[in-house]
């Protein structure tokens, strides 16, 4: 599972 | 990018534009909580600091600039341009009751103890409660103009669509962001009471939303 801050989201 | 996130971003943009146009065209910010708008400008400021350090896509950069510009423009209209129509006597929510827990939590719960990461986490937690002063103001005055309720509808809808986006991303790319999800769910729950009133009164009554 990729688990990280969703920095590509606004 | 998926349809839920795109719809969410569009809904968010629509909400911000509805509010800005309402204030600009009516030349008044009566019934609008300036505190909430300041909190939203703070949310965007602390979340989009990576605007100049990380390039994700044209869409991402453009939307961040637009959200920052429109939110600061809204704050400007409320506190400068039309400040004599600002109901400061009704906008009395104690924002320190929001900021202190949010700051504390963002230091406790984050993905990395770095300035950018803590500020990003702060913006996520703050966004969940930033609408409180506005909802408090409406309960205090007991009513809201219908255009304000449309603003709140699209604002609440945007994070609900983001929840759908997170479910979609979990199932399609096994990706999940716990901090954003938990905060987004809390944020959407805070809108539920409003959604109930919106669907039962505004859409049916087509007039002002008056609280019981």
Topology summary:
The complex is a heterodimer of chains A (10) and B (212).
Chain A: E1 2-3
Chain B: H1 3-26, H2 34-47, H3 58-81, H4 96-108, H5 115-129, H6 132-141, E1 143-144, H7 146-173, E2 175-176, H8 178-205, E3 209-210
Antiparallel strand pairs in B: 1-3
Helix pairs in contact in B: 1-3, 1-7, 2-3, 2-5, 4-5, 5-8, 7-8
**What is the helix content of chain A?**
under 10%
What is the helix/strand order of chain A? E
Mean pLDDT over the full residue set of chain A: 67
Largest sheet of chain A: none
Structural class of chain B: mainly alpha
Strands of chain A, total number: 1
Largest interface by Cβ-Cβ < 8 Å:
A-B, 10 and 25 residues
Which strand-content bin applies to the residues of chain A? 15-25%
How would you sum up the major sheet of chain B?
A: 2 strands, antiparallel
Order of strands across the widest beta sheet of chain B?
A: 1-3
Shape of chain B: globular
H and E string of chain B: HHHHHHEHEHE
Rounded to an integer, what's the Rg of chain A over CA atoms? Answer: 7 Å
Brief summary:
The complex is a heterodimer of chains A (10) and B (212). Helix content of chain A is 0%, strand content 20%.
Protein described:
The complex is a heterodimer of chains A (10) and B (212). Chain A contains no helices and one strand. Chain A has one strand spanning 2-3. Chain A is elongated. The termini of chain A are far apart. Chain B is mostly helical and 212 residues long. In chain B, helix 1 (3-26) packs parallel to helix 3 (58-81), helix 1 packs antiparallel against helix 7 and helix 4 crosses helix 5. The longest helix of chain B is centred in the last third of the chain and has 28 residues, at 146-173. The model of chain B has no long low-confidence stretch (mean pLDDT 95). The interface between A and B is medium-sized, with 10 and 25 residues.
